[in-house]
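Side project, low priority. Logging it here so it doesn't get lost.
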Amino acid sequence: MSEIKACLFDLDGVIVDTAVYHYRAWKRLANELGFDFTEEENEKLKGISRVRSLELILEWGGVVKSEEERSELATRKNDWYVEMVSSMDPEDILPGAAEFLRKVKAAGLKTALGSASKNSGLILEKTGLLSLFDAVLDGNSVTTSKPDPEIFLKGAEALGVRPENCVVFEDAVAGIEAAKAGGMKAVGIGSAEILNKADLVVRGLFEMSVEQLDNL
């Protein structure tokens, strides 16, 4: 039995699904560099920073680039991605996500976003969800990526809530590990087999109720 006072959410795969936009932008970049990029490879980038994602893609393609060239490539990919997410709207919110966020707020719990995406603010704005978050922590707010707990610890700090009173909602193994490393409860969104370190696993926020938080 835990006393949950705050809910911290990852963005991609939990609140919205922007994986398809990341995939299209990375694939376009890989194709321009002369090799292909598969959906299976894209799965391996879940929860990983843009810089690390690029390093992996270049490794897979057997392409060597200087630090300056890598920086330019990461920027190019991001420009394409931002262009795509700029056309997002409330239709892009995953089933049950907005409803659950409203219930969490109505119950008097605090909310924060903890996402590696540096475009989180833009996405929340486009989907009309920004007002449902008390704090937004993204890739611009931290120096280390998940599974390091930095982003969630900073989220808890921004909300003025102790880590043990927080629950994290994540769809990636690295995110669940980050939550646990930070001393928080974790709810996995996706497969129970893959997210086996989570305290509870559901298929989506449409399966969550505020009452379930009392039993974590």
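Brief comment: The CA atoms of residues 159 and 193 lie 32 Å apart.
Revisit when time allows.
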